[in-house]
Amino acid sequence: MEGTRNSWQRLAREQKGFATTNALLAVVRGLAVLPGRKAIIVFAERLAIPDAVSARLKVLIAVANAANVTVYTVDAEGLRVHSADAETAQQIRAMGNAGLALKDDGSNGSSLATLESNEDVLRKDPRTSLRLLAEPTGGFLINNTNDLSRGMAAIDKDRRFHYLLTYTPKNQHYDGAWRALAVRVPSRQVQIRSRTGYLAVRGTTGIPLLSYEAPALAALNARPLPRQLPLKATALGLLSRSGEPRVAVIVSTDASAVTFTPNTANDAFVTDFTILARIKDAQGAVVRKASEPYRLSGPIADLGSARRGEVLFFRQPELPPGSYLLEAAVHDAIANAAGARFVPFTVYGAGPKGLLVSALVLVGRTEHVADVRPDDANPLLAGDVLLYPRLGEPYRKSADKAVPFFVRVKVAAGTPAPGASLVLVKNGQPAASVPLEFAAPNALGVIDHLAQLPLDAFAVGDFVLRLVVQDGGESVTRETPVRVVQ
Asked: Which of 23, 38, 186, 215 lies most in the core, judged by the most C-beta atoms within 10 Å?
């Protein structure tokens, strides 16, 4: 019963800690787009930061520092009748006595769990938990007082009177590592509050940087781009099922290429790698960034199956029409290895008569979806079929039988389907052409066309598959490269 109660208490503290840090992270991200120095004042009785939450707290601090946000914390319990030190010391002594007490078998209660409980008690001290949030961002804790006006005056003074120092590191190798900073005034006895360091990454202005993203972003800034890990990526200007412009971003790496570390002590394996995608507009400004940390674990008996297959990263951002560049990277933290590549793409807008045509998608494989939600806007969902685009792999005459492709078209509601043709281009010259017959548009004017070309029509070599859609006097062309090998 005691163990169950402790487990529930630990779980509750973890949930409270994640809820607090995630909420603060959302506020910091919202403030990041504003110029100048910003401040957040956090009122809390305690900040729950068990071991499971400490990594998230580090992410919050890194994002706040990159966004020029200072966090001030206020212990909302105010003036205490009993010292927090006495409460903490009492709990630690109780655990110490429990550890020294002899059991029936002659052993004592000392264990790793006791040490972890000891650390947890220290972290529950408001002076520890709230300072861990405030001080690394250049703020401070207002503690053990009922005089809120004095505390607010101290915060206001700190915000109004501060020095802004610039720093140019001698180490110009931006590898994404954390670099500690310390500000000192040797000739004067003063108290200094400053940020404790920074992540060595270029070009993070405007969009918050998560700590685990730093090595992957460093890989994007390396020249030449790293190639230690295999990476495939594409970005396609598509349409949602209702005909709204939507981008499909897909990044893939081989599971066999990342490091799976076995731990024989608990008969398990772990991984620690990150996939990141960044989108720049035609002026080179970063307009979107997304990432996913893959910290996987499992029984060591499943290691073989876990290393098979591929790891897929998928996002579907909304972007205005224009030309863009997808920058994708994968970073293996255990092996300190990375892979990166750049892919240009276009988001298409409607023509003067409302004709809107998605990118021409080469389909690698399909998957049936049993229950499709009516509001699912996934641009790769055609009816109840989920499409997986081909990520640049060549077609093999010895293995492939056809070239499946997909396009989504939107016309003005109530108008018939437009005419279309598919042209095979070799060395810049049309080699073959076939007409396409689209189905009638649905009530929204949307047409899905999923078909395939026999691979027998292709010789070995490089081709361009060109789609031409004509609606009255309006003509739209979409192209995609096709490579065929023996």
From this structure: 215
Q: Which residue has the tokens 């991984």?
A: 271
pLDDT tens digits, residue range 226-242? 999 999 999 999 999 99
Show the beta-strand stretches assigned E in 221-272: 232-239, 245-254, 261-263, 268-270
Closest CA to 468 of 426, 412, 407, 427: 407
Question: What Å distances lie between residue 274 and 210, 226, 313, 339, 481, CA to CA?
Answer: 11, 15, 10, 11, 29
Q: What is the largest CA-CA distance in the chain?
A: 94
What is the C-alpha separation between 133 and 125, in angstroms, rounded? 13
β-strand partners of 362:
405
pLDDT digit string (tens) for 35-85?
888 999 999 887 777 777 877 888 788 888 888 899 999 998 887 655 555
Count the neighbouring beta carbons within 10 Å of the beta carbon of residue 195. Answer: 18
Question: What's the token pair of residue 422?
Answer: 């598919």
Cα-based angle 337, 342, 345 (whole degrees, multiple of 5): 150
Q: What are phi and psi of 372, to 5 degrees?
A: -100, 120
Please indicate, yes or no, if residue 86 is contained in any of the structural domains.
yes
Apex 367 CA angle, 366 and 370, nearest 5: 150
Q: Which two tokens mark 102?
A: 């002899």
Identify the domain containing residue 111 by its residue range: 2-164
Residue with tokens 């807008």: 349
Residue 157 belongs to some domain of the structure: yes
Q: How many CB atoms lie within 10 A of CB 336?
A: 11
User: Are 92 and 62 spatial neighbours (Cβ–Cβ below 8 Å)?
Assistant: no
Question: Tokens 């970073």 label which residue?
Answer: 331
| Beta bridge mates, 73 | 42, 141
> Does residue 222 contact residue 84 with C-beta atoms inside 8 Å?
no
Going by C-alpha positions, the residue among 324, 358, 359 that lies closest to residue 342 is: 324
In angstroms, the CA 248 to CA 232 distance is 14
**DSSP sequence for 354-394:** S-EE-PPEEEEEEEE-SS--TT---TTEETTEEEEE--SPP
Do residues 339 and 231 make contact, with C-beta atoms less than 8 angstroms apart? yes
Two tokens, residue 140: 């401070």
CA 403 to chain CA mean position, Å? 33
Q: Report whether the peptide linkage leading into residue 186 is cis, meaning its omega lies within 30 degrees of zero.
A: no
CA distance 453 to 422: 10
Provide the angle, in degrees to the nearest 10, between the axes of the packed helices 2-32 and 51-66: 10
Report the range of poorest mean pLDDT among 38-52, 204-218, 320-334, 388-402: 204-218
Q: How many residues does the chain have?
A: 486
Domain count along the chain: 1
pTM, 2 dp: 0.73
Q: Is residue 412 part of a domain?
A: no
Three-class DSSP category at 447? strand
Q: Which DSSP string do the residues of 458-486 spell out, in sequence order?
A: --SEEEEEEEEEEETTEEEEEEEEEEEE-
Pairing of strands 395-396, 419-426: unpaired
